[in-house]
Amino acid sequence: MQTMFVPIFKGEGRLEYEERPVPQIDQPTDVLVKIEACGICGTDLNILAVPPAHKATPNIIIGHEGVGVVEAVGSGVTGLRPGDRVVIAPRLTCGQCKYCRRGLDNQCTNYSTIGTAIDGAFAPYLRAPQSALYKISASVPRDDAAFFEPLSCVVGSVARAPIQAGDNVAIIGAGPMGLLFAQAYRLLGAGRIIVADVSPYRLSVAEEMGMDVALNPAQVDLPQAVHDLTELGADVVVDAVGNQMGTAIKLARRGGHVILFGLRPHDNPPINQYTITRYDLTIHGAFVGLNPFEQTIQLLESRRLQPSQLITHRVPLSQLAQGVELMRSGKGMKVLVETSSQ
Ligand SMILES: [Zn+2]
Ligand SMILES: [Zn+2]
Q1: pLDDT tens digit sequence for 263-299
Q2: Bridge-partner residues for 236, per DSSP?
Q3: CATH number attached to the domain at 3-152+290-338
């Protein structure tokens, strides 16, 4: 039996390496993927936090931002062949519950995901149902394709609030997700894009990427600065942190839209409800987007966006924990795990 040496999530922030069998085709709809690389996500940091800020099943392989090549397919798989490059849409939805039947696939009551409930992609091989895989052109560089899943969350979330050419956008949080929002809004024709973060390192990456304005709320009065720059306030504000709604509503213009994207389950920020009502703000909760995958493939294949600019470090599979630490400490922006190198 072929085996692979892989990091296993042991609960309480622990990763331990074990020899595991290389997965085999089991169901007719299974696909075996040779994983080339897998990005470390904020979700992985949350899974590995103590106490955890995201649930995951102990004894599984985590990782869901994988890109790889089809190695073998089950007898019932159509449209995918060995040699095809694929990316992972990690949500596993039932298609049968009341939410699935209403088209709210992200609210499936039987929702689970690859890399949190079942084995994920921090491994040389992954077995996944065909429904969770999307074919992507080999012309998309591996490192850009590795952003399929986080980019899909952004594609799904920008769809929530109307945006017109020239609209000013403010984004709180200049981590990988905030900067993917910034790239997406630039393509959507935003006027001024303002990103804010308390990390000078992240702000410098934002500036290197050509963002118009990068502000540090520890150094400037953020609401004042945004109003000075935009006169009325931002047309659209994104909270990519998860506890910044109080600030976000101060950055929006009257009648503006706020997208709440970040997830911080342990935080309870105070909100000034009066501001929302008095200034006619629209607040959108946006959890990973509704069926955003086809458009995300099209966007990546268009090559009009190069998310791999955000990769600051690459680590072999044997150094997953070090990669996680690089992101947690804020010393790295996006860390890519190269799963084929040990
Ligand atoms: Zn992710
Ligand atoms: Zn469902």
Answers
A1: 998 899 999 999 999 999 999 999 999 999 999 999 9
A2: 169, 257
A3: 3.90.180.10
